[in-house]
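S1.2 Input.
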Amino acid sequence: MKYWKIVLTIWMSLLLGVSFAQGFQPGDKVADFTLADAAGKSHKLSDYTGKPAIVLIYVSTVCPVSYAYNERMAAL
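S1.3 Output.
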């Protein structure tokens, strides 16, 4: 019984999270924000207005699978 309560709680949490998530469509505008790169340099989204694409990649430094993508990310 306790197992099913935990499963139900997790399932309901996921459903609620999805229902409150804000979705974006291609062409939607987002608020300007600033992120730091690996070297600590700040980059504002508005600095890249008019560029063909912006790629943000978040990886875990402790995940062995993410290491397989290092060369691909560097090529971008």
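S1.4 Remarks. The chain has a mean pLDDT of 79.
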